[in-house]
Amino acid sequence: MRRRTAIGVLAAAAALLTACTAQGGDPTDFPTPGVPGPAEPGTLRVLASSELSDMTEVLAQVEKDTGIKVRPTYMGTLDAVDLLAKGQADGQFDALWLSSNDYLRLRPDAAKKVVSETPVMSSPVAIGVKAATAKELGWKPEDVTWSQVEQAVRDGKLTYGMTDPARSNSGFSTLVSVASALSGAQSALTDADVTEATPRLKEFFKGQKLTSGSSGWLAAAYDRRGDIDALLNYESVLKGIPGLTVIRPRDGVVTADYPLSSLAATNAETRDDVRRLTEALRTPATQRAITESTHRRPVVADVRPAAGLDTDRRRELPFPGSRSVADGLLDSYENDLRRPSRTVYVLDTSGSMEGDRLADLKRALTALTADFRDREEVTLMPFGSDVKSVRTHVVEPAAPETGLNAIRQDTATLTAEGDTAIFTSLQKAYDHLGTDRDTFTSIVLMTDGENTTGAKASEFDAFYAGLDGDSKEIPVFPILFGDSDRSELEHIAELTGGRLFDAQQGSLDGAFEEIRGYQ
Question: Residue 216 is part of which domain span?
Answer without folding.
Answer: 123-255+314-334
